[in-house]
Design a protein that fits this description.
With 117 residues, the chain is mainly beta. The protein is built from no helices and eleven strands.
Length: 117
């Protein structure tokens, strides 16, 4: 079982990035995918969720700027981040949780996003 995030990097305020979360070793379509982020010295916070049925939810801080999506054929989830702000700087993690088996809960290793001028 593996979740691998990619797409992080350094971007100027107002810029965009697209993060990817590539899954392997499990039935991706049966899992809810959630993006979290953790800034230095802060708790890990939920950013966006896409349920196995495709419905989505977002933290208020990113609504209207970030979009979560999934491609079950490619076993990959995405987080499109637009109009990035300094406060979006963090390590971004993806998490996969089975739709009913709570023990099936996986995390990626994270990808760094830095918003700086």
């Amino acid at each position: 079982v593996q979740l691998v995030e990619s797409g992080g990097g350094l971007v100027q305020p107002g810029g965009s990035l697209r993060l990817s979360c590539a899954a392997s070793g499990f039935t991706f379509s049966s899992y809810t995918i959630t993006w979290y982020r953790q800034a230095p010295g802060k708790e890990r916070d939920l950013v966006a969720t896409i349920i196995y049925d495709g419905s989505t939810d977002y933290a208020d801080s990113v609504k209207g700027r970030f979009t979560i999506a999934r491609d079950n054929d490619k076993n990959t989830a995405y987080l499109q981040m637009n109009t990035l702000k300094f406060e979006d700087t963090a390590v971004y993690y993806c998490r996969a949780r089975h739709k009913w088996a709570r023990s099936l809960d996986y995390w990626g290793q994270g990808t760094q996003v830095t918003v700086s001028s």
